[in-house]
Design brief:
By secondary structure, this protein is α/β, with parallel strands linked by helices. Helix content is 30%, strand content 25%. Helix 1 crosses helix 2 and helix 4 packs across helix 5. The termini are far apart. The protein binds 5'-O-[hydroxy(phenylacetyl)phosphoryl]adenosine (DLL). The site of 5'-O-[hydroxy(phenylacetyl)phosphoryl]adenosine has 20 residues, from helix 5, strand 7, strand 8 and strand 12.
């Protein structure tokens, strides 16, 4: 079921709306953000030059670095008294990116989150256990507001506190669980350890996002909990969760709410626009943001786009599941590989559980890669065989021979109870 008529609007009408909004947001950013005034002038785009959505690719990019140099509020388009909320996203290094919202922005966020939850199959009467972290991270409050807007019952438990999570899931009979995929797996494991069978609970849907996961990982989650896992995507710089989501009805790509966020795919090396269907870096432009309008933001996330109609009836473009980021590319002895490719290849080997870590180091001039993975609880074979199978699979699929593969007992590798999981440990710097 759709939440808002705009989700199924005719594509010509959608384009018209996008064109109008793009022209307005470009002039708004020029007038109110000195950074954009300069960037637009440097790009040779005088006022009035942007005439429609087809001109979007003429605009200059905004990068993560721009958020850093303009820290904390250099990209804001409004005075502080109009800012009603702040969130932040912590990078791995340096200062966090500070993002701001006016009342109207918070309204847009609530409504795109409500739409997203409805697309995931959540309905008014559902109980949603929100295990995304509350605080500066956008996950907790983003989901919270969206649930309220939709009229669902929100259980604001936040991240971590696994014993409490399980107790609430059981006692309240939550219908929906919202959390990261890695935490979802951890909860499933802990339930098994406590002899609680998730299949006997009313839980039917998990809404997972905030970090990459592969299809085999999703299958593990669905089988362990007896649920449908729906992929939700977003980022603080654009709004938070609710930029795009899969429709539970079809689950072939994530609908990007194009009336508010305009997506493009570029070649990350040249910056050139790529045609529909090709994989590249996702670039997003906010069409309606007041406090923090962002033009052509280079997300670093790798995906592709399609505007083919979806059987669910929604007309908004769909992006592929994000399994990697441009800055996650590992170069190991000259071979380019993403952690997600290693994950997918390993999980193809039966008996391997979706808990692993990759350790990269350097010996003299040579890179070393050690892979550690757990075997499944019910794996009855010997560990050495599994290690060989993983090694062979990685060689065959990725052309990469790890220096060591260790298969360890279940529940050996550290779990992440709050925040985003880290699986790659690069000790080479
Ligand atoms: O992670 C917002 C969010 C919260 C999304 C809850 C979904 C659920 P940031 O902390 O700013 O915001 O991190 C954004 O996380 O650029 C991606 O690299 C990654 N990411 C987010 N969702 C997905 C997803 C939130 N579904 C960054 N699949 C993004 C893969 C994702 N990666």
């Amino acid at each position: 079921m759709t939440y808002n008529g705009v989700e199924t609007v005719d594509r010509d009408q959608l384009r018209e709306l996008q064109s109008e909004r793009l022209c307005d947001i470009v002039e708004y950013a020029r007038e109110n953000v000195p950074f954009y005034r300069e960037a637009l002038a440097e790009s040779g785009l005088p006022p009035g030059e942007i005439d429609g959505i087809e001109d979007c690719s003429r605009l200059p990019f905004t990068t993560k670095e721009d958020f850093r140099t303009e820290y904390p509020d250099g990209l804001f388009a409004v005075e502080w008294d109009a800012v009603k909320r702040i969130h932040a996203s912590s990078g791995t290094t340096g200062k966090p990116k500070i993002v701001s919202y006016t009342d109207r922005d918070l309204g847009v966020w609530r409504s795109v989150m409500a739409r997203s939850l409805a697309a995931a199959g959540v309905t008014e009467g559902d109980v949603v256990q929100n295990a995304y972290g509350y605080g500066l991270f956008t996950g907790g409050l983003g989901f919270h507001d969206g649930c309220e807007e939709l009229g669902a019952t929100v259980v604001p438990v936040g991240g971590g506190n696994t014993a409490r999570q399980i107790e609430l899931l059981t006692d309240l009979g939550s219908d929906v669980l919202a959390c990261t995929p890695s935490y979802c797996l951890y909860l499933a494991e802990e339930m098994e350890r406590r002899s609680i069978d998730p299949h006997e609970l009313p839980l039917s849907t998990v809404v997972i996002g905030a970090e990459p996961f592969t299809d085999p990982m999703r299958e593990e989650i669905e089988a362990a909990l007896g649920v449908t896992a729906v992929d939700v995507y977003g980022l603080s710089e654009i709004i938070g969760p609710g930029v795009s989501i899969e429709c539970a009805a079809v689950q072939e790509g994530l609908h990007v709410w194009e009336d508010h966020f305009y997506p493009e795919i570029i070649d990350p090396d040249t910056g050139e626009l790529l045609p529909e269907g090709e994989q590249g870096e996702l670039v997003l432009t906010t069409l309606t943001k007041e406090a923090l309008p962002v033009l052509r933001y280079r997300t670093g996330d790798i995906t592709s786009l399609t505007r083919e109609p979806c059987a669910c009836g929604r007309t908004h473009a769909r992006m592929d599941n994000v399994t990697g980021r441009t800055d996650d590319l590992l170069i190991v002895r000259g071979v380019n590989v993403y952690a997600s490719q290693i994950e997918a290849a390993m999980l193809d080997v039966s008996g391997v559980a979706p808990h692993y870590r990759l350790d990269l180091s350097r010996e003299g001039e040579l890179d070393r890669m050690n892979v550690t993975a757990e075997h499944h609880e019910d794996y009855a074979g010997d560990v050495a065989t599994l290690e060989t199978r993983i090694l062979e699979r990685l060689e065959a699929v990725l052309d990469l021979t790890p220096d060591a593969v260790s298969v360890v007992e279940p529940a050996t590798i550290d779990r992440t109870e709050t925040g985003k999981v880290q699986r790659v440990f690069d000790h080479r710097e």
